């Protein structure tokens, strides 16, 4: 069965996406959950242990605090309080930390460190999974046992002001609330003012027990300008004044009403830019981002007399500590343990009781998650500590007051703490228990696809651009049925003998057998192709292949493209290279420009050859059926200024790339350094940013409009004007007639105005494409239609890009224009070489935008441009489009370029589609193997796992691009 190369490549990518999804399902484990369906209740709490007698009590000791204020300051780094900036910008907080009645901690936050997973960790005590990153865009109601539900059930009145993620997670849980949308990050004043405006009236009232304040402004400044922005200092002073106001109000309540209050200032995630590999020793050992945790209460009798190094704790440890501090049961799925210094003022009996309740909860979670839980060291230590606790209680109730009782109690206390830490670590390690069966099945499918692409390379890149797949002989053969039987028996053995549940085993038998049959058929097709190539190839076919191989020797550029691609794949095995992957692509792009420069010099300035030599050694557009090019006329045409423009083009590209590198610092090692983007986003330089944005939009129009119809040109111009209007409406840039005291809005009307023109341009382009295929075979009309679709994509990118990133879009279009005019066209690079170059440029521009392999760099605010509320499909599409705008723009330009070149072979689009599929499959398959081998690496969750998500999403985007390639190729084939 013969199919075109583009169709074959698209099918391979679709299959590969399925394999990656299955691998991800096995790689990212489901968080540990309790088997109990109901939530924890006071009546379910264990009795206080007492040896030889009936238990003494089943109640929780009296609560430590009657009223709690939780102040969450998003992205407050620890050095903003404990470092030099603390004394300058947060003097009151620093004074309380050094000399007040407080406890300070540095809380380790496990990946993923985004808002919704961190809120779940703070309220449930469980470690969130990476699936919560996706759910962060649309936070559903939290159904599992949590601190807010326990407080509401106990009759406590909870008031909340801040990030509306809390309201979606805990609907109908708050007595009073006012939410602020966290995704419109261009605003860093109103979001906090909306929280603070309720403070004075709320602090005077006595009708609440828990007050939660979630401030977003500091995080928004970090997104906009980075941690070194001039806006950071005033925002820290604002947060310090708010904490002072709250603390003063609580102190007055203590004096007048004798209430025991707790003020907790913490961070649900920290925007830390400290390198994980070369920072402090703690960071180096843990690999987790750190957050600040300060507990302030008059209940704490120990008063500090100077600054002490904060003690490290886990962020999930806050949940059981606050629950027992409020007299509430601990959440069932909590994996944290008590922060013992908080309870140091309690009696020894109460401390032991708190530890016993925490140990009982953790031991039940151990039972539910570990088949051989009795052999768990932490569980054994807890049972020993519980018996010792019973012996101590017996002596205590008998009235023993000797020093032996005190020493024994301290020993039991230490036993409990050791047991709690051991059980907590054991439960946390459940995240490292992988579903290896699902991973192996997904990996096998991905490897099969890659191997199939490799062994069909000669056919896919031939002049016919067709691949002959022996489907009938493979599916109707005995090996196929034997493979199906063998794989089915393995599936039965794995699913019946394994002690842990596998996702693949939970699927229906019909679906499992379909996957097995598909896997077996792919393997049989691969074996059939190999057998045909090795044993059944005809002599004349061997001669043709030999002639092709002798005529198509690798040039220096081919060797560079091959070694660069393979070198990048090998670099993914090191965490440092993943963190700084942009450096790899910048290096490859610079090397490519120098190689192209050498090619230009060799072609037009150094070599003096005859027309026959030029014809034999020039870069042909395709290896087969290539039309003859008159190089004598080409050389004479380039004798003028055009050859000098060709010479300048790679150098100009180098200059553009160097300028773009200075625009956005990315990665880990140097991301904290100030860059041009930070300078432009400073409020003092809004005039410069406005001029740069306006100039960029004008030049973008000039570069794009040249091949559009008159209607599309008008729509494009009005759309770009709407882009500037949108940015002015949200306060990023200024209109010339606009006053400083302007009103800032969400720009919904302006953004939707641009969307109308985007859809109109896309519709015009699609109409021209349809006319070129159905009504008349007009190549020029088809080329114009493709370019109009491309211009619609450019307009959408201009809308979603931040104003300081508009030069990235401008330089992208400029490089594409000059390279197409003076390099790819004049030097006649073939479709494969041109495709690889486009792929490299697309990868580099992915990082020029400021992206990295850290999930925190994803600009989720792009998903809410023009939306009043969260709408799932548009938000996900816009966020993904903005993130991968660089690769998408270069892929779309490749389609336009290959389709517009009349001198090219009719198979050029098929060759480009196949090369795109191969370029994406090689790193994806290699990285899956690498993360499987490195799954117990120290940085598996902080470095390797986010990159795996990026690879999966990139493969999905590439599959969509190849489907578009296929549509264009099929239309071309029909016309031909």
UniProtKB/TrEMBL annotation:
Residue stretches spanning the membrane: 7-28, 436-457, 469-494, 506-536, 686-704, 710-735, 747-765, 875-900, 912-936, 948-968
Gene Ontology MF annotations: CP2 mannose-ethanolamine phosphotransferase activity
UniProt keyword annotations, A-Z: Endoplasmic reticulum, Glycoprotein, GPI-anchor biosynthesis, Membrane, Transferase, Transmembrane, Transmembrane helix
GPI ethanolamine phosphate transferase 2 C-terminal domain sequence ranges: 642-955
GO CC annotation: endoplasmic reticulum membrane
Pfam families to which the protein is assigned, alphabetical: Phosphodiest (PF01663), PIGO_PIGG (PF19316)
Localisation per UniProt entry: Endoplasmic reticulum membrane
InterPro entries hit by this protein: Alkaline_phosphatase_core_sf (IPR017850), Phosphodiest/P_Trfase (IPR002591), PIG-G_N (IPR037674), PIGG/GPI7 (IPR039527), PIGG/GPI7_C (IPR045687)
Topology within the bilayer: Multi-pass membrane protein
GO terms of biological process kind: GPI anchor biosynthetic process
Pathway(s) it belongs to: Glycolipid biosynthesis; glycosylphosphatidylinositol-anchor biosynthesis
Family, as annotated: Belongs to the PIGG/PIGN/PIGO family. PIGG subfamily.
Designated name of the protein: Phosphatidylinositol glycan anchor biosynthesis class G (EMM blood group)
Organism, scientific name: Lepisosteus oculatus
């Amino acid at each position: 069965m013969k199919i075109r190369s583009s169709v074959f490549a698209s099918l391979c990518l679709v299959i590969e996406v399925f394999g990656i999804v299955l691998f991800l399902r096995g790689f990212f484990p489901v968080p540990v959950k309790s088997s109990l369906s109901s939530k924890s209740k006071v009546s379910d709490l264990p009795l206080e242990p007492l040896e030889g007698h009936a238990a003494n009590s089943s109640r929780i000791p009296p609560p430590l605090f009657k009223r709690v204020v939780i102040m969450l300051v998003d992205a407050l780094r620890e050095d903003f309080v404990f470092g030099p900036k603390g004394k300058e910008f947060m003097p009151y907080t620093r004074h309380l930390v050094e000399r007040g009645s407080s406890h300070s901690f540095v809380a380790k936050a496990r990946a993923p460190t985004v808002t919704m997973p961190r809120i779940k960790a703070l309220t449930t005590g469980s470690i969130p999974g990476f699936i919560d990153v996706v759910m962060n865009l649309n936070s559903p109601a939290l159904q599992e046992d949590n601190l807010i539900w326990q407080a509401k059930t106990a009759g406590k009145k909870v008031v909340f002001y801040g990030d509306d993620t809390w309201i979606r997670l805990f609907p109908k849980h708050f007595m009073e609330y006012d939410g602020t949308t966290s995704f419109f990050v261009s605003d860093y004043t109103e979001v906090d003012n909306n929280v603070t405006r309720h403070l004075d009236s709320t602090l005077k009232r006595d009708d609440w027990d828990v007050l939660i304040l979630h401030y977003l402004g500091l995080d928004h400044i970090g997104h906009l300008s980075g941690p070194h922005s001039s806006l950071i200092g005033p925002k820290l002073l604002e947060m310090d004044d708010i904490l002072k106001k709250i603390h003063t109000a609580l102190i007055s309540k203590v004096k007048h009403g004798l209430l025991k209050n707790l003020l907790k200032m913490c961070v649900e995630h920290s925007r830390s830019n400290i390198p994980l590999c070369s920072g402090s020793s703690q960071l180096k050992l843990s690999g987790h981002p750190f957050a600040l945790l300060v507990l302030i209460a008059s209940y704490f009798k120990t008063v500090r007399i100077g600054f002490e190094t904060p003690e490290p704790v886990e962020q999930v440890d806050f949940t059981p500590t606050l629950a027992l501090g409020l007299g509430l049961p601990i959440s069932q799925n909590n994996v944290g343990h008590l922060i013992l210094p908080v309870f140091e003022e309690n009696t020894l009996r109460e401390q032991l009781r708190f530890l016993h309740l925490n140990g009982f909860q953790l031991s039940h979670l151990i039972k539910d998650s570990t088949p051989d839980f009795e052999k768990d060291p932490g569980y054994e230590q807890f049972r020993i500590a519980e018996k010792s606790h019973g012996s101590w209680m017996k002596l205590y109730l008998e009235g023993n007051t000797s020093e032996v009782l005190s020493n024994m109690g301290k020993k039991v206390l230490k036993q409990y703490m050791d047991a709690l830490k051991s059980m907590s670590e054991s439960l946390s390690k459940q995240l490292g228990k992988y579903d290896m069966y699902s991973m192996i099945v997904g990996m096998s499918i991905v490897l099969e696809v890659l191997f199939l692409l490799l062994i069909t390379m000669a056919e896919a890149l031939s002049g016919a651009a067709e691949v002959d797949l022996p489907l009938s002989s493979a599916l109707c053969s005995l090996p196929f049925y034997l493979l199906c039987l063998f794989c089915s028996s393995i599936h039965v053995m794995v699913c019946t003998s394994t002690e842990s549940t596998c996702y693949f085993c939970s699927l229906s038998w019909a679906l499992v057998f379909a996957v097995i049959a598909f896997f077996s058929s792919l393997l049989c097709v691969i074996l059939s192709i190999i057998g045909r190539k090795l044993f059944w190839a005809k002599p004349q076919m061997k001669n043709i292949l030999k002639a092709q191989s002798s005529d198509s020797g690798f040039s220096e550029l081919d060797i560079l493209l091959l070694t660069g691609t393979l070198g990048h794949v090998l670099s993914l095995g090191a965490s440092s290279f993943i963190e700084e992957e942009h450096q790899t692509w910048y290096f490859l792009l610079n090397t490519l420009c120098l190689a192209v420069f050498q090619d230009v010099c060799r072609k037009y300035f150094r070599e003096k050859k005859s027309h026959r030599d030029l014809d034999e050694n020039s870069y042909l557009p395709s290896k087969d059926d290539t039309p003859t090019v008159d190089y004598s006329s080409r050389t004479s045409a380039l004798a003028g200024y055009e050859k000098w423009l060709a010479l300048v083009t790679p150098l100009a590209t180098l200059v553009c790339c160097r300028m773009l590198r200075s625009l956005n610092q990315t990665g880990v090692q140097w991301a904290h350094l100030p860059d041009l983007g930070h300078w432009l986003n400073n409020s003092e330089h809004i005039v410069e940013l406005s001029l740069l944005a306006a100039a960029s939009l004008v030049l973008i129009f000039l570069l794009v409009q040249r091949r559009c119809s008159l209607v599309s040109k008008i729509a494009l111009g009005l759309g770009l004007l709407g882009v500037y209007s949108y940015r002015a409406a949200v306060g990023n840039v200024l209109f010339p007639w606009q006053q400083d005291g302007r009103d800032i809005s969400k720009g919904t009307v302006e953004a939707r105005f641009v969307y109308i023109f985007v859809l109109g341009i896309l519709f015009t382009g699609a109409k021209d494409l349809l006319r070129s295929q159905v009504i008349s075979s007009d190549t020029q009309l088809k080329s114009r239609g493709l370019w109009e679709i491309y211009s619609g994509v450019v307009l959408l990118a201009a809308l979603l890009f931040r104003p300081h990133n508009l030069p990235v879009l401008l330089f992208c279009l400029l490089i594409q224009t000059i390279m197409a005019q003076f390099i790819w066209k004049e030097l006649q690079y073939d479709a494969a070489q041109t495709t690889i170059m486009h792929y490299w440029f697309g990868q580099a521009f992915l990082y020029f935008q400021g992206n990295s392999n850290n999930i925190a760099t994803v600009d989720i605010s792009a998903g809410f441009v023009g939306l009043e509320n969260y709408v799932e499909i548009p938000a996900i599409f816009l966020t993904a489009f903005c993130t991968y705008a660089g690769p998408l723009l270069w892929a779309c330009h490749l389609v336009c370029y290959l389709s517009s070149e009349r001198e090219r072979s009719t198979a050029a689009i098929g060759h480009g589609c196949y090369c795109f599929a191969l370029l994406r499959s090689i790193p994806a398959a290699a990285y899956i193997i690498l993360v499987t081998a490195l799954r117990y690496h120290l940085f598996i969750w902080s470095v390797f796992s986010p990159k795996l998500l990026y690879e999966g999403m990139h493969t999905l985007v590439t599959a969509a691009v190849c489907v578009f390639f296929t549509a264009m190729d099929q239309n071309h084939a029909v016309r031909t």
